[in-house]
UniProtKB/TrEMBL annotation, chain B:
Molecular function via GO: nucleotidyltransferase activity
A Pfam family the protein falls into: GTP_EFTU
Coiled-coil regions listed in the entry: none
EC numbers, comma separated: 2.7.7.4
Listed Gene3D superfamilies: P-loop containing nucleotide triphosphate hydrolases, Translation factors
Lineage summary: Bacteria, Bacillati, Actinomycetota, Actinomycetes, Micrococcales
InterPro entries reported for this sequence: CysN_GTP-bd, CysN_II, CysN_NoDQ_III, G_TR_CS, GTP-eEF1A_C, P-loop_NTPase, Small_GTP-bd, SO4_adenylTrfase_lsu
Tr-type G domain ranges (all copies): 18-235
Keyword terms: ATP-binding, GTP-binding, Nucleotide-binding, Nucleotidyltransferase, Transferase
Organism, as annotated: Arsenicicoccus piscis
UniProt gene name: cysN
This protein's record includes keyword GTP-binding: yes
Protein name, as recorded: sulfate adenylyltransferase
């Protein structure tokens, strides 16, 4: 039972998706050909699941010569971690996990007062990139995600601090990608830049891309905090007086 | 497995399916480009409710009567403060007939760099013209860049028709100016369409968003209809087969001990099982025995498909080679004569050492000659020998350290394209086109005669 209800994918939509797929595979192959130590940022989320699906197809029938990298905040739902580990085992992949917990434990990072760990991911990411000498990071970011991303390149050069210098971003012409970089720098590569949210869901549908079960409607204990339904976990528990309910989320978020 | 049991192509029959359209949009300052892009996004229901609410509130704060759709895409001020100068923005919208990738290029500064970038991947160009101003210098410049990059379809949207009470006479006057520009530049398919991005008339439908129609004389299709019905794959499909090899796939696993496939994306034409192919520059020839695609084995692949080609003979062919049909091979050259658009703040230097990227091959190069600079206003070639600076378009000669396989850009936009790269920083210095990208255009003949007449009255007002 899917929470998201898709109309049948039309011939036009299928054609669009196959064109996007061909473009993404070309980009992934460029990375494999031009970089020595590429990694793929794999969170278990839907965009990274689609990216991995494309990467496996790009190299088939050869094994994937790309390491998976997950910066784990420790605040993931168990279904996502189970999914991650199962996919890695199923395809015999090489996974590196950078646990934000480890950086907090030895003092390289401090927990934030609000408890959120998403902003803490940068340091573990860059430390791992430097330690493993990754020179390309494949990511599942898309230009339609928000207005600020509309000008991001497919090949985005970063300095040793992960910094994005607008002056150093290269114009991208034709299908000729330029991933050259100086030692100590790495390039972020976004093969699904031109996909929309709906393209991703259509592709998941027609390719039967497996996702963590929590993407689909299910019953779960929740409580309401600041207008958002929260589920109990390491990121937080209901405060005294919060009412814990069992709800089944609907596609409209109700 | 025989050929007849395999699907023909990955994308299936093409007859009724209109493939995704990549569109570059250019216009001068205040031509209403942001409003038109906002209008296209809004009228195709590509705007989320909360985005619309936000711009409605912002419009009210500014005291506007109507919702200002330009606010959907305007975000440039902050970016200008950050010093971003390469700022082609990519936007996405879909209609039941087709999906669109729109490259939105700013009109004012850095227009060449941005327009060249947006045009390089475009199937079609949309150039905004303010009906009150007519085809200005900037319109001609944009058209010249689209012609140079050989964008096959160029649509001129004559905007703000509401401001001239949908005057048919005024529209026809401007249409004549545009037709002359298109003819001189040899643009194959020129469309001219009157619109009002503000009211919505003749953008997504022939009437304004309130249902009225002021331009009763106009019975042509609205802009979106034209965009939905452009036939864009025909060119690449009809060209001779070209397949730049990206990498060799050799699993060497127990399951696939002897698999050796050439992975790449068909850039032009098509290839089928049993076809003879030649690799360039090596010149080795073999026969296609397998075509593996993301959907499994195919009998045939066509331009745009990412596939892995299996050959009968184990040729020493890898990244940087181009597979072609033996009947119509590419050219192997060790010196490029071509046209570049300079994209970097640092100008070219005489005898500069560069990297040259052609398809999947990177070789060293020496910029030996600057044969002339293109004056996009007069369309004359001037200043031979002068350094090439940011936003300049110039004819150059680059000597190569080893041979590469190319086509003339005028016949094949993918195998005729190259980049010039700065070796120490890796920066992309220039976008290049092999040969004369304007070949076949009336203006190309004039260029040969070194004609520097003020070709469209660029210096005079219209």
């Amino acid at each position: 039972m899917s929470a998201l209800v898709l109309d049948d994918v039309s011939a036009e939509q299928t054609d669009t998706i196959r064109a996007l797929e061909a473009e993404s595979i070309q980009i992934i192959r460029e990375v494999v050909a031009e970089f020595d130590r590429p990694a793929l940022l794999f969170s278990g989320g839907k965009d990274s699941a689609v990216l991995l699906h494309l990467a496996l197809k790009a190299m088939t029938p050869a094994p994937l010569p790309i390491t998976l990298l997950h910066v784990d905040t420790g605040h993931n739902l168990p279904e996502v971690i189970d999914f991650r580990d199962r996919i890695v085992a199923e395809h015999g992949l090489d996974l590196v996990v950078a646990n934000v917990e480890d950086w907090i434990a030895d003092g390289r990072l401090q927990e934030r007062p609000d408890g959120t760990r998403n902003p803490l991911q940068t340091v573990p990411l860059l430390d791992t990139v430097n330690e493993r000498r990754f020179d390309a990071l494949l990511g599942g970011a898309r230009r339609d995600e928000d207005r600020a991303r509309a000008k991001e390149r497919i090949f985005s050069v970063r300095d040793a601090f992960g910094g994005w210098d607008p002056r150093r971003q290269r114009p991208e012409l034709w299908q000729v990608y330029n991933g050259r970089h100086a030692p100590g720098e790495h390039t972020r590569v976004f093969p699904i830049s031109n996909w929309t949210e709906l393209d991703v869901w259509h592709y998941i549908d027609i390719e039967s891309v497996e996702l963590p079960s929590i993407y689909y409607a299910h019953e779960r204990p929740v409580w309401l905090r600041d207008g958002m339904w929260m589920t109990p976990g390491p990121w937080g528990q209901p405060a005294e007086g919060d009412e814990l309910l069992v709800k089944r989320p609907l596609p409209d978020g109700g | 497995m025989t050929a007849t049991t395999l699907p023909l192509t990955s994308t299936g029959p093409q007859d009724e399916v209109r493939p995704q359209l990549r569109l570059v949009v250019a216009g001068s300052v205040d031509d209403g480009k942001s409003t038109l892009v906002g209008r296209l996004l809004y009228d195709t229901k590509s705007i989320l409710a909360d985005q619309y609410d936000a711009i409605e509130a912002a419009s009210k704060r500014r005291g506007a009567q109507e919702v200002d759709l330009a606010l959907l895409t305007d975000g440039l001020r902050a970016e200008r403060e950050q010093g971003i100068t390469i700022d082609v923005a990519y936007r996405y919208f879909t209609t039941p007939a087709r999906s669109f990738i729109l490259a939105d290029t700013p009109g004012h500064t850095q227009y060449t760099r941005n327009t060249v970038t947006g045009a390089s991947t475009a199937d079609a160009a949309l150039i905004l013209v303010d009906v009150r101003n007519g085809a200005l210098v900037q319109t001609r410049r944009h058209a010249a860049v689209m012609a140079l990059l050989r964008v096959p379809h160029v649509i001129f949207a004559v905007n703000k028709m509401d401001a001239v009470d949908w005057s048919e006479e005024r529209f026809e006057e401007i249409a004549d100016q545009i037709r002359e520009i298109g003819e001189r530049l040899g643009i194959e398919d020129v469309r001219i369409v009157p619109i009002s991005a503000l009211t919505g008339e003749n953008v997504a439908s022939s009437t304004a968003s309130d249902g009225t129609k002021a331009g009763t004389w106009h019975d042509g299709p609205p802009l979106l209809d034209i965009l939905e019905n452009l036939d864009v794959q025909a060119v690449e499909q009809s060209l001779p087969f070209r397949f730049p090899v990206q990498l060799v796939i050799r699993p060497r696993t127990a399951e696939h001990p002897d698999y050796r496939g050439l992975a790449g994306r068909v850039s032009s034409g098509r290839v089928a099982l049993g076809d003879k192919v030649t690799a360039h520059p090596s010149g080795l020839t073999s026969t296609v025995t397998g075509i593996d695609s993301p959907q499994g084995p195919l009998a045939q692949a066509q331009a745009g498909d990412s596939v892995t080609v299996l050959l009968r003979d184990e040729l020493d062919v890898g990244r940087g080679e181009v597979l072609t049909t033996p009947e119509e091979p590419s050219r192997t050259i060790d010196e490029i004569e071509g046209v570049v658009a300079w994209l970097d703040e640092r100008p070219s230097r005489h005898n500069a050492r560069l990297l040259v990227k052609v398809g999947t091959k990177v070789v060293r190069g020496l910029l030996t000659t600057v044969r002339g600079h293109w004056d996009v206003d007069s369309l004359a070639w001037t200043n031979p020998g002068a350094d090439v600076a940011l936003n300049d378009i110039a004819r150059i000669t680059v000597r190569l350290s080893e041979p590469v396989a190319v086509d003339d850009y005028a016949t094949d936009r993918s195998t005729g394209a190259f980049l010039l790269i700065d070796p120490p920083t890796g920066a992309t210095l220039a976008a290049g086109m092999v040969g004369d990208p304007l070949a076949g255009a009336p203006i190309a003949a004039e260029i040969e005669e070194d004609d520097d007449e003020d070709w469209l009255g660029a210096g005079s007002s219209i």
